[in-house]
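DEPOSITED CHAIN:
***
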Amino acid sequence: MALKPTPQLKLLLNNLDVPNQVIRANEQVRILAVTDPPIDPASNYRLAPLDLPDAFVRAGGRGKDIYTVPDAQPEPLEIVAELYLGDKVQSTVTKQIYVLKVVEPKMTSGGDAIPSNVRQGQPLHAELSEVDLLLFSEESSSLIEVKWRSEGVATVTPNHNNPRYATIGTDRVGLAKIYAELWNENEPLYRKDEQVRAVADFEVEPADGGTGVVSVSLQRSAALPTADQALWSLIRHRTGEISSTNYIAFVDQILCGGNLGGLPGERQRELKDAIGGLSGYGTSSYEVLKYVTELFLLTRCGTYDSFDPDSKALAEESARLGETVGLTELRTRIQTYLGNSLPYLDRVILAAFPGLETTDSYLCEGLIRSRVESPCLLELIWSYWHEEGMLVQGTNAVSRRFQNVRGPGPRDPLAHFELDPLRPLNNILWGYVQDERKRLSVNRRAYEYNHHYGLALYGNAVPPMRPADSRSKFLEAFHSLLSLAFGFYKEDSDTTVIADGYPLLNALKEVHMILAQGAHNQFGDLPWTARVEMLIQQWMFARPEMRDFLQSRPMVPYKEPWMPAVDTLKTLQGWSDVSVTHFSDLGTYGEQILLSIRYGDWIGINDENSAKNWARYWRPEVQGYIHAYRAVTGVDLTYPERVDAILPAIHLQKRLALQHARGGPAMLSARPGRARQFLPRL
């Protein structure tokens, strides 16, 4: 008698014997375990019930083998079928189902479909678009890769930094076909019985179009995307969120409109109690303003706070990145880059604190979780340039006059400053004066400017400094980087040249190292405290009570509402006649540029494309900083052979002396023949 064949176990997905299936969320899929040949009822073979993840939901009324999954999944769902012989497992089959939002990828170039006809020698920068980025996120443990291949006359070179991009070469004439296929390790992904892939068919035509006349076109060198671009998008959003304009609107919304929405419940209760207890006397109003200012920064400056740019900001990001990006894709890129913390911080922790756990406590041993996972994106250079712009000194002049203290010299330019007690600023300024002993002194800020950047403040209130540690090489390295960036822009705009990104990359590494050396001691708290104090000062200068006295030129356009009063005060005091707008630009642009250098993992990067992308992305800020520095100090930073490393404070002294010598606004307290007449009191 012939032996009966052993049943072979099969796991069918949508009635197909394929290694996996890709489905949309809520799409039905049939999952069935069978044997070939079928099991003889008289034998000891039996099929075990399918082992399905909890995400599967049986589709009602459509048969017991039909299932759906309501939501997209970051990881593939694994299905296990087992065939038993008696009580022992005879064979096991495991397959995977990918549940995604987008299941039909397309191949595009510059946001458009690949053209059907391409000129010979015209390179195409291809992108695998309309593919679910969950497949490539760090949340997914599956090893999804994009395999690019070509048929015919074209060649394809994948981008090793981002597998969704590739460059298509068209050096030969003829028909070509390009494939971008999704694979998981050694198996392609399937949707029903077809591979999940994008295909582009096109014909490469002669460069002369068959006429014998060769047309020549020059294009800017390609910009290959890099992962760190996501960090720069986050930095732009965060620094924009904590601008003075947004801060003033935030304060008005909470203290004037009573709208506490968006704040944590505990914070709302604390604020309601504090606002309800205000009496209009004492320092309570100022204390509430200070608390609201701290809340403003706490909820907006961290890397893991909400990322919700509006449509205008998304359009700007797309223009900077050179591709159209939506909010969901941008969020996914940021989450993928950050992981649990910034790659730069991961490198530092691995080297300096191996094995040390994070903790939510601010007193127990361990790494403070909030500072590891969501550091506040602030740079002290913002405070430095606003201080040089006389924001703090102007506030001090007003507070002295508020206390009936005459300014230096025979005449006080603020003699007619009278602040009525019937409006809020009177009481706020009283609280500000009373809080003086708790605020940072100019001396402490000056020492920290020196510790971070090797910068100095010169003035009557700043004694000779004896710093223990100074970043003496920062200014030279930073200005050299800006100069190299300017040169790169000229080469990058020249279509006959392929700009070299390695000098930029080396300069970025140098500045990154210098900044890292200064990230100690007061680095964690002093920039935060200085920002809180200066935001309050800006709020006071933007008040109607201040504008009533310090009336500015009405036809001058200002970016922020506090600026007109500060410029007027500078004129009254005989300080620099350079608009505070330029100083503010230096602070704002400088902060964004340095944050992108400080928190980028530049030491671990050896790809010039990252440096090229950095320069292209931050071009408006770099060019804006160079222009503002020229307007403030008179120094042009665009000459690579002559890098200026002289302290800005020295340039400011010289320009103020020249301004007075030419008959510009002079200090009312100045005495002829005295050099110190040109140093404003800090």
Notes: Residues 376-678 form one domain. The longest helix spans residues 474-493. The radius of gyration is 32 Å. Residues 667-682 have pLDDT under 50 and may be disordered.
